[in-house]
Amino acid sequence: MKIYLAFDIGGTKLKYALISEQGQLLKRYSESTIVSSKSEFIKRFNQIVDKFETQISGIGVSVPGKVDFQTQKISFGGSLPFLDGISFNEILNTRLPVFVENDANAATLAEMWLGSLRDVNSGVMLVLGTAVGSGIMINKRLLYGVHQQAGEVSFVSYSKLDKEHMMGSQGSAVALIEDIARNAKLSELDDGRAVFKMINQGNSYAVNRFKIFCQNLASLIYNMQTILDVERFVIGGGISQQSIVVKGINQALCDLRQTSSFVSTTLEAPRVVSSRLYNDANLFGAISHFELRDVNNLSQNIEDN
């Protein structure tokens, strides 16, 4: 049985896991991401690889920022700017195959391999977190785009090109939780459990803020569907574990479509469902290329564009 080492690099946490070729998560680890220096970050990364090298057949890395499919080099590091220009094939002291993928694309690949996109031909993954990440699957192939920026829906504009008028802000799960927590004067602004308890209990401010959040995402889904015409939208990120999230987005999408009989009778509505892998999606997606064997298809997809 082949075993792979998967990494999910976040601005706060570095998660890594041993995952089998059948998609079994054998062991999960988590530690604080080193943000103090590039050299210390690379040193720690190599220490982890050294620890597992004799047990594994390959390494997968999910990262924030844009990843060049052909060179595997990272551009823009999101919350980790020192990742800009890094190639893990060059910085890791190993001869094992290494594959690097953008975090939203990794989550999409995971759902294609083991999750809610496995049994459909075309679909979209929306990852709700600090902003809104997205991956697009068309005819069982991940869409990268000419500049490898397809699915950057956080930049979708609501009339102006500033942060407050972009989907990354309007659809931010982190902002939703912090806003409600601040209004309720909670001691911890990231207490999602307490926030969703308030929503479920009918707190008026929390319910209204959540409704607006769902309406913003329903609008995004409606607009993406008019262009892509896919079978399914998958809602991911930690917030997707709350069943009320998918239920709320579906209701908002239904309400939006009913405001126009022309739209509701002309355009088919996509199915909106929850992720099956939740916060582990990036880990599975990081090593999914070794099992999906889709590298040639994905490379051809870039050349076609």
TrEMBL record:
Domain of life: Bacteria
Cross-referenced Pfam families: ROK (PF00480)
Xref: CDD domains: ASKHA_NBD_ROK-like
InterPro entries in the cross-refs: ATPase_NBD, ROK
Gene3D superfamilies on file: 3.30.420.40
PANTHER family for this protein: ROK (REPRESSOR, ORF, KINASE) FAMILY (PTHR18964), SUGAR KINASE (PTHR18964:SF170)
Record-given protein name: Transcriptional regulator
